[in-house]
Design a protein that fits this description.
- The complex is a heterodimer of chains A (about 190) and B (about 500).
- Chain A is mostly beta strands and about 190 residues long.
- In chain A, about 5% of the residues lie in helices and about 55% in strands.
- In chain A, the strands form three sheets. An eight-stranded antiparallel barrel of chain A has the order 1-2-3-4-5-6-7-8. A four-stranded antiparallel beta sheet of chain A has the order 9-16-14-11, with no helix packed on it. A four-stranded antiparallel beta sheet of chain A has the order 13-12-10-15, with no helix packed on it.
- In chain A, about 30% of the residues are buried.
- Helices cover about 35% and strands about 25% of the residues of chain B.
- Chain B is built from 18 helices and 18 strands.
- The longest helix of chain B has 17 residues, at about 255-270.
- The radius of gyration of chain B is 25 Å and the shape is globular.
- The chains are: A mainly beta (about 190), B alpha+beta (about 500).
- Chains A and B meet through strand 1, strand 2, strand 3, strand 4 and strand 5 of A and helix 13, helix 14 and helix 17 of B.
Chain lengths: ~190, ~500
């Protein structure tokens, strides 16, 4: 069972399933860390529905609907920061950092250098579907990418368990033999 | 209502003011002619007018400032009137004369009016002759500290020493007492000599707690004139107005000053037989003393504030006066309070222009809310011209009501640059919207005791917002990023807000 984790500012979200599409609903476990004390709040599970549009996203939460305009900018470390404006209000936030994965703990900092693994295309073809996102934990044998080659659909699976660090292709893209598809670390 | 058949008006301007003038022309039955530069081929003012004539390259001196081309456009179009708007040719006496020579009627004051009030020395002479106060200053350069002392002995301290050739605060010193004058004079003079190659110094009385208040007048050109109340424009950044309101809060504390200012403005207007809309700018200090600064012989950017409180369409008066159909009415009663802010394409921290393409624009509406703009659909804020996106003005029965209405209006406003699929920004457009939202919630603005140094003294107006989001905002960021990453670049990201967005997206993908 893979769980997708994301962090935004002091908030940490665990997604029960990977959200997809312009409209949908997902269940998410929320925790917050108090920056000063380092104390992590008790987790709370929310159901969120959304609708994306050209400038941002609308969320439907138990307490009502919230619209946001989002402007992303790549930061120096290759991450993304967002300027966020709540529609119809004066509330705004700047340079809100986004990251995939668990909150860095001392334990996984000690784990040291991780082994990187590349998943490459074995033949020329077209990417039909990408089934993982960066930060996601995958099991050995789990499908990663669906590729069309030689007029056939081929499921490319993980050869061992690990965490996806980068997705190098997009759906619909044509690739040559040997092209990197997904990088992950064990 | 039956409309009189009227001759066409050429609008020698662009942007929101061109559309604002064209609207009144239409209401009165004047056909409209737009002019446009290379950069403005698709501009909204071109579409709005009945016809449009190309006048030259994007640079203003090739097009909107080129008298010859503007006049030839007027000739080609068969226009009878030329309305200059504000900026560009609106205060050029030689343009007024060129219009008259070409058999056109300039919608505005006479060339003589402009020369009398536009030339600083001549304006000062007129003002002094009529006994209207202006900031006390030395008649010419003072030769040393001793002479500056004599001046200060008459006006009192503090005084301001200013380089005659100066600008940008160089060679400028505030002096609070007689003992400091000699060293301040020597220092400022040395600095001016170094910076401008000229060490000569003027001396002026320093106005404490300065408020910028202006009086709107309208003259019939025959020696008759009325005022239409005042506007306070104390809130400025980079010496440019950003919020204007009527009535003036400082004059509410000094009603006698208000009456004296009206009287001064009318005395000058009548004396010079002023024709049309004009504005007298004054500086008012914290004790209610007022001093004449200058006269603007044109329609002001912030005129909607006056229109809200008086119910007068100032452009209609200008046009009717030009058409010889205007009779000066009594001074209109002023009702309630109006506030305007200027939404600019500029950095909300540094106030430097940041023009670019617009991906989305939603301006406010509702009861007693007015948006003056040339961006009816998303377009581009051109780097060739003033980066104003819109003026947003409101009216209320009183100031708190107007201010609250303005807060709601600004919260409704959305201006966004075009986006890529993952919502990263394509263009360089920034706006001062976040600054304006903070400004209308500032406690000093709320109190109404705003001086011209408000923005410089309130760093929290220009600080950047927190990067620690609310739960909802954090969820929005996380979901948005996951959805972008699971979606692939080839797909559409939901219903686009306009066709332009689709084009932007295609271009974004290609970049």
């Amino acid at each position: 069972m893979s769980i997708l984790q994301t962090r935004v500012g002091s908030w940490s979200f665990k997604w029960k399933s990977v959200p997809r599409g312009n409209e949908g609903t997902a269940s998410v476990e929320v925790t917050q860390m108090n920056k000063a004390s380092g104390v992590i709040s008790k987790s709370n599970t929310l159901t969120v529905s959304w609708r994306r549009d050209a400038d941002g996203i609308r969320l439907i939460l138990p307490d009502g609907t919230h619209g946001f305009d989002l402007q992303g900018q790549k930061d120096d470390d290759g991450g993304t920061q967002f300027n966020v404006t709540k529609r119809g209000s004066h509330l705004e936030w700047t340079a809100v950092p986004f990251a995939y994965g668990e909150r860095e703990t001392q334990a996984n900092q000690r784990a040291g250098v991780k082994k990187a693994i590349r998943v490459r295309a074995q033949m020329p073809g077209k990417i039909l579907r990408i089934m993982v996102v960066p930060g996601q934990m995958v099991e050995k044998g789990q499908p990663i990418v669906l590729m069309e080659a030689m007029k056939m659909e081929n499921e490319i699976r993980a050869i061992q368990a690990g965490k996806v660090s980068q997705v190098k292709v997009t759906e619909g893209q044509a690739v040559e033999t040997g092209a990197d598809l997904v990088l992950f670390e064990t | 209502m039956k409309l009189t058949k009227r001759q066409p008006v050429l609008i020698a301007n662009r942007g929101e003011i061109a559309i604002r003038i064209a609207r009144t022309c239409r209401a009165l039955g004047f056909p409209t002619v737009a002019i446009y530069s290379e950069a403005d081929r698709f501009a909204e003012h071109v579409r709005y007018c009945d016809s449009a004539i190309y006048v030259g390259a994007a640079a203003p001196k090739e097009s909107y400032l080129n008298i010859e081309r503007v006049l030839s456009a007027a000739k080609v179009s068969g226009a009878k009137y030329v309305h200059p708007g504000y900026g560009f040719l609106s205060e050029r006496a030689n343009f007024v004369e060129a219009c008259e020579a070409a058999g056109l009627i300039f919608v505005g004051p006479s060339a003589q009016n402009m020369r009398q009030m536009g030339d600083k020395i001549q304006a000062r002479a007129t003002v002094d002759q009529l006994g209207v106060p202006r900031v006390p200053g030395s008649a010419g350069a003072v030769k040393d500290g001793e002479e500056a002392k004599k001046f200060a002995a008459k006006t009192g301290y503090p005084i301001l020493l200013k380089a005659a050739a100066g600008g940008g605060g160089k060679g400028m010193r505030r002096v609070d007492s007689e003992s400091d004058i000699q060293s301040a004079f020597d220092g400022a003079s040395r600095e001016a000599l170094g910076a401008f190659g000229d060490g000569s110094m003027y001396v002026e009385k320093l106005i404490l707690e300065p408020h910028h208040v202006e009086v709107q007048v309208f003259g019939d050109g025959q020696g008759g004139a009325i005022h239409l109340g005042e506007r306070e424009c104390s809130i400025q950044r980079r010496h440019q107005k950003v919020l204007e309101e009527s009535p003036s809060p400082i004059l509410n504390r000094f009603p006698k000053t208000r009456e004296a200012m009206y009287e001064s403005a009318l005395r000058i207007s009548k004396h010079i037989r002023y024709a049309g809309a004009g504005t007298f700018e004054f500086i008012v200090d914290g004790k209610g003393n007022y001093y004449f600064l200058e006269m603007n012989t044109r329609l002001q950017v912030e005129h909607p504030v006056t229109e809200w409180v008086t119910g007068v369409d100032l452009v209609s008066w200008q046009l009717l006066l030009a058409a010889g159909e205007f009779k000066l009415p009594p001074i209109p009663e002023r009702r309630g309070c109006s506030i305007e802010v200027r939404l600019y394409a500029e950095d909300p921290q540094t106030f430097l222009p940041a023009p670019g393409k617009l991906g989305l624009i939603e301006l406010p509406s509702g009861a007693f809310v007015r948006s003056d703009t040339a961006f009816i659909e998303p377009g581009e804020v051109s780097l060739n011209y003033d980066p104003m996106i819109s003026k947003i003005s409101v009216w209320g029965n009183n100031r708190p009501e107007a201010l609250q209405r303005l807060r709601v209006a600004l919260d409704e406003t959305r201006v966004e640059p075009p986006k890529r699929l993952d919502k990263t920004v394509m263009g360089s457009l920034k706006t001062n919207l976040s600054f304006l939202k903070r400004l209308v919630r500032n406690s000093v603005v709320e109190s109404g005791d705003t001086t011209t140094d408000l923005i410089g003294n309130n760093s929290d107006l220009t600080k950047s917002a927190s990067s620690e989001p609310s739960l909802e905002a954090a969820l929005a960021v996380a979901l948005n990023q996951i959805l972008s990453d699971t979606q692939g670049v080839g797909e559409s990201s939901g219903p686009p807000s306009s066709n332009w967005n689709q084009i932007a997206r295609r271009e974004g993908v290609r970049l």
